[in-house]
Please model this.
Amino acid sequence: MNKSTKNHYSSQEDDFIKANYHKISTEEISKKLNRTRNAIIRRAFLIGATNKRKNLWKKYSRRLCKIYNSMKDRCYNLTQREIKYKYWGGKGIGICDEWLNNKIAFLEWAINNGYTKNLSLDRIESNGNYEPNNCQWVTKQVNCSRTIRKKITQEIIDEIRTSKEKQKVLMIKFGLSRNTIWRYKNNDNWFNEKKKLNLKRKIRKL
Model:
C-alpha cells in the first residue's frame, strides 16, 4: 500500500488497521503501510481499533508502569546511585531505544510475551541490557535464585550490624531479604543458631 500524506489516512488504510491490529504486530502493519510504528498506534486509538488492547492495558498497565519506571531508575536515575544505579546503570546496563523512547512498546511486548501479575522482569544475560531479546517473565523464586549472592560470613554480619547505611542499600549490596537484614541487625545469636540448625539437619541425613 502506498503512503498518502503524512497526517491523512485513506479508508483502505483505516480498514487494514482495523482488520489486522489484533492479528499481526504493529511493526508489520507499519511496514505494509509505510508509516512509523507510533503513527500506527496513534491512528488505531483514533479509529477505535484498540478497544481490546485498551482493556488489556487497563488490566495490567498500573503494575507494568511501575516495573517500567523502576527499570529506568535503575539504569538512568543518578539520584538512585547509592541504592540502585550503582548496580545497574553504573555497570553500563541500559535500556534499548525502542523501550526507552516508547513506554507503549514495552507494554505491548510484556502483554504479548507471557506477562502475568505474579511474574517479574528478568534479564537472561545478567550483564546485558533491557531489550526484547534479553528479557523474560519469571516467578520471584526463579528471579531470586538467579541473583548473585555473597557467601555470608561473620565478618559480613558484623559489617551489617555496624553499618549506618539504609536497609535497602544493604539488601542490594549483600543480596539479602529485608527480614534477614533485620535479623542480623537485631538478633546477635540468630546466625549461630542457624548454623547449629543446619548442622543438625546434616547429621540427621547421615
Summary: DSSP finds eleven helices and two strands in the chain. Strands lie at 119-123, 135-139. The longest strand covers residues 119-123. The chain has three domains: 11-49, 60-145, 154-205.
